[in-house]
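Sequence in, structure out. First:
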Amino acid sequence: MEVLIEVCRSMGWCWCWPKKRLEDGYDLEHFLNLRLPIFWVMGPPGCGKTTIATALAKASNYRLIGENKPTGQKRNCQKRLAWKSDSSIYERRQIAACPNEIVLNLLKEIFYLTCDESEGYILDGFPLDLRQAKQFQFEICKVYIIIYPTLPVDAFLKRFFENGGSREDREKVRVNHIECSQACQEVYRRYEQKTLKCVTIYETEILMNSLLCDLERFFGYHFQSYAQQEEQV
């Protein structure tokens, strides 16, 4: 039976079949039984992931879990990562070397500690690549929806320079942007039916209103409009 569950979990069929106990000590059975929606917001650097994830969290009251990386640092599992939640229960951590296993264990801890107080989760900057996406679904649960903001390289470089980026770093950040885009594209091809792809060259209000309309039209999620969010600030 355990083998069957693991096979089904790897194929994304096992939301209702939780693992009883994890090696890190977090029993996620209760979290899985709640069936809370989980959104991934992935994309290359500078594409507006955090802006979208923050606005989406405000519109939905879902718990925002973010990734904070030092400027100019390549996106891979061996670099420093800081996962944070807006919950007072889970404080931000700095990790010197962060393979997928550590990132996933931190997420398991957040889910374990906060699931009773959460309506859903939005993961900003996750996954980094297809391997991380598959490992999340194998070890934790299925993702509900993936938001995939993209930005053409020329538009990204223009934004990079406007924000004070150095011209000496132009080629490095350009290559990094392309590599990250390719990694995200692999995730998109694997989970296309769950993904909303958008180009972030428009103003935030226009982009978010379009995104929220698409979430309602294609997936049935009715969230607060961006204008309503601004009125409450």
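Second:
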Amino acid sequence: MSESTAAAAPVPSLTWADPARAQAFAAWLADVGPRHGLDAASVQPASADASFRRYFRVAAGAGSLVIMDAPPDKEDCRPFVAVDRLLAGGFVNVPAILEWDEARGFMLLGDLGRHTLLSTLVTDQPWDAGNRARYRAATEELVRLQAVHAAGVLPAYDDALLQREMDLFPEWYLGQLRGITLDDTQRGHLDRIFTTIKAQVGGQARVLVHRDYHSRNLMADPADASARPGVIDFQDAVHGPITYDLVSLLRDAYVMWDEDVQIDYAVRYWEAARRAGLPVPVDFGEFWRDFEWMGLQRHLKVLGIFARLAIRDGKRQYLDDIPRVWTYAHRVAARYSGLGALRLLLEQAEAAHGGAQTQVGYTF
């Protein structure tokens, strides 16, 4: 067996559904490995996400790097590369792109660490000093991200996109997951509510929006709570409402904080954003109302997405996160006038699943 043939043998520690993909990966690794000191025998799965992308970690000298496997017939990596370069130009802590084989769908990236923000949080102690330092670092990184110029560079988070996202709620969450078919009256109420939501969030100032700036997409240093988080999964970034990413962070589908904690972090973000010259309202009460309406749009979308992931894609684990998202949406629907029909729909959907309950919260 020749040296080149041996180098292109499939990596034994990995499993592949497609033998041709395994061979392509081995050949690519043999090509780029010598340039970066990669130890092919050390390649191990790192993570997978809700798409067709997979990630591997590989030893490189004294450290490690990350490999993205994104089959080109299923994943277009060009948005990831474009946004990565845009954010890196604004000094946001994103992975460095060291190699990109667009034709074969493999990428070699800098390693931002093994620990997500979620994995480092003390979830039963909301005022834990480490939690506070980590969220302070996350909001400071968000301010840095939002300062990157995106108008005319990234797609607009426009009325049509907002509508498509909210349409996932009646189609997948109400219909497919909970078996609710809306009558004409309910559909009319929901259409009017969607129009109101779009009007509320459409009037907000616009910045670069990550779209999934939450505890599973921020990489944290477990030894240093004040360290800058690494930012990943940004390929769907758009130019849109300034409150969107803060909602993703503070009303996270994977960890829930009491509203007094959310407000404390939101005030600190708002103060930092004002110092940085970002276009947040001068009055925090106005900012908080914007935050709540934006959150309602996002959480209706996420209810639909989680239902679709569970039903269409067989990823049933997302059903465990629905109660948090439902609670966020229900609180806002119960708090603001004109949303009563939505509140009733949410309660009808979850009445048999332990979700319908009275919520108390803050308004300004």
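Remark: Confidence is low (pLDDT under 50) at residues 1-7, 356-360.
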